[in-house]
Amino acid sequence: MARQDTITNWVRDNPNEARPKSRTDQIALLRKIKAGGADAQDCRETLILSNVRLVLKLAWYYAGHYNDNRHDITELLDEFTQEGFLGLGKAVDKYRLGSGMAFSTVATWWVRQAMTRWIAENFRTIRIPAGRHDQLNRMKRLRETLYQEFGRDPTDTELCDRLGEFNPNARVSMSDVLYHTQTGVSLDKPAHEHGNQVLGDILPDNTEARTSDFAEQAALEQAINKALNTLSKKESDCIRMRYGIGGVQAVTLTAIGEHFGFSKERARQIVVQAEGKLRHPSRARALSAFRL
């Protein structure tokens, strides 16, 4: 008998133990668990079993949502149920007394987190971070909402505007998240309906860059460094950080100010001043020969 069926039968045969506890009872159990007394383990089991319906409800939701030809529905239910109980145990461990939050709220978050992490690890050819998987799910739901609202597929800009977490100062860019919405295609997939040719036979290999490209890139980096070295050290460092020059990641003006210990406005002034110097013919002439 499948694990999920066994739990369902247990819930039917033990309705009192599986009945959700009141908020007051849950807090009382959590206090005993955190105290670590002799009955702490019994209280933990009681609290977990009283939330078994939450695990089963979410397991059915995700199993139905992600059911496909590659996975048996019974196996999916078992996997999601198991992950759900792991998340429920994590919720008990992480709950902070005095936080003011209902345990059911915290439990729901941790159970969903456990299940979506399992999805992220098992439902894509190329594994992506679980956090990014959550963002993709939110974006997918938003895209469907906007499609109903506009009567057409929304543009990336419209998604950005509606999804508040994606702003110019966000660490995760919209394009980076959209990149992960792409699905992989096997190179062994037939290229045509008839014939033995596969995609791997006809796709060009763009990984072999020409020697001239490397030489031009090296010359450009040398010219940029030479131009930046004519600026003050602070101006040079601000420009490098702002535009990601020299192998560093491009950052915001706020981040530059925090790094050097001055305001965002002061960082902007330094960058603008440095850009003005770089536009001077004595410096710009050296860079004009490159295809920028």
Number of domains: 3
Kindly report the average pLDDT value.
Answer: 77
The name of the CATH topology of the largest domain is Four Helix Bundle (Hemerythrin (Met), subunit A)
SSE sequence, one letter per element: HHHHHHHHHHHHHHHH
Which architecture of the largest domain does the CATH hierarchy give at level 2?
Up-down Bundle
The number of E-state strands comes to 0
**Biggest β-sheet, characterized?**
none
Structural class: mainly alpha
CATH level 1 class label of the largest domain: Mainly Alpha
* Count of discrete alpha- or pi-helical segments spanning 4 or more residues: 16
Fraction of residues in helices?
55-70%
Radius of gyration: 28 Å
Residues in β-strands, percent: under 5%
Could you list some keywords that capture this structure?
Arc Repressor Mutant, subunit A, single chain, Four Helix Bundle (Hemerythrin (Met), subunit A), 292 residues, mainly alpha, 3 domains
